[in-house]
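Before relying on records like the one below, remember that each one covers exactly one chain. Contacts with other chains, cofactors or solvent are not represented anywhere in the record.
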Amino acid sequence: MNDTAHGDHPAIRPFRIAIPQPDLDDLRERLARTRWPDELPGVGWSYGVALDYVRELAEYWAEEFDWRAQEARLNTFPQFTTDIDGQRVHFLHIRAPEPAALPLLITHGWPGSVAEFTEIIGPLTDPRAHGGDPADAFHLVIPSLPGFGFSGPTREPGWDIRRIATAWSELMRRLGYERYGTQGGDFGSLISPEVARVAPAEVIGVHVNALVTIPSGDPVQLEGLTPAEQSRLAGTRRWHRDLSGYAAIQGTRPQTLAYGLADSPSGQLAWNLDWFAAHGDKPNALDRDAVLTNVSIYWFTDTAGSAARLYKEAASVWRTPPERSGIPTGVAVFHGDGAIRRLTEPYHTITHWSEFDAGGHFAAMEVPEPLVGDVRAFFRVPPLEVPHWLLRPARMIKATFQEPEKAAAWY
């Protein structure tokens, strides 16, 4: 990367989080005035997030949670903003101490943010300092999705998966990276492969977790599933039946929802907890400070409604199968994930598949070490196992797709 293409680039501006004190005071006052709903006795979480859980976490948010400490921690990572396709994009950019490190673009999902990744940034950028091999170092680019947090709100419709992937490709070009990998979970597991479809000459590999696979409806596709795969399929069906209400509302009426999310921090907390805490079997699996840091970013930036719009913008991805990607792809399946290999292979070139008994949907927050290890293992593939055209300089790879007759002379 050319250093002049970064902080000195006129289109890239340094950024620092600095929430005004009146905003913190307003949050505490609103939390203190919450009008709580009633709850049916004995229903637990079956009707939604349990009242006692939300009240306890809201009280902690108001009286004990230290936003300034979390803000200071986030500000230890270099941050920037730039405008792409008419939209402000906020991103972390952490350069490894190893000059030959591989650039890696990491994308979060909903209801997450760049704060999801604080535990994996150090090990990925500086493995030497964390007992690892310096050859495994990555330069990290971690953007906030358009409409989310410091990249929000969006100002026009149309910010779907393809448009975000195209913006990410432009961001990496603007930073001077010609060859890089992508990684992501939740919506990031859809966007990261799409970046490879948008920029196949630049992306050398895609690693995902929390990948959702949806059966086509052909019963033959489901014959011979292993017990673990049958369990994952049952989990996906349970999500559709019992837990997908938030996705249905955000995918159809996000503006109606936005009024409550923008006005009530307790309401926004409960809404985000419906996926942060209610999925899987362990409502308390995530550290509450980590959860509240993510929720606070939505609240202080007033982007809960804007973030919800991504579900409506991206609705077509659930109806239209993506084109097959030829880029090597690695999938990490953590406990509670629904990925089934045979359902992913029609759309991805799977070269790496790992399954873990621990973890969850937010692996970077729940089990950072296994996630870091799997990312390293995937991008550590010996060169002979990678298609030979990926080993050529970026200018040659571009020619392969854009001017194949010229590229032939290089092979």
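Strands lie at 12-15, 79-84, 87-94, 102-107, 138-143, 180-185, 203-209, 328-333, 349-355.
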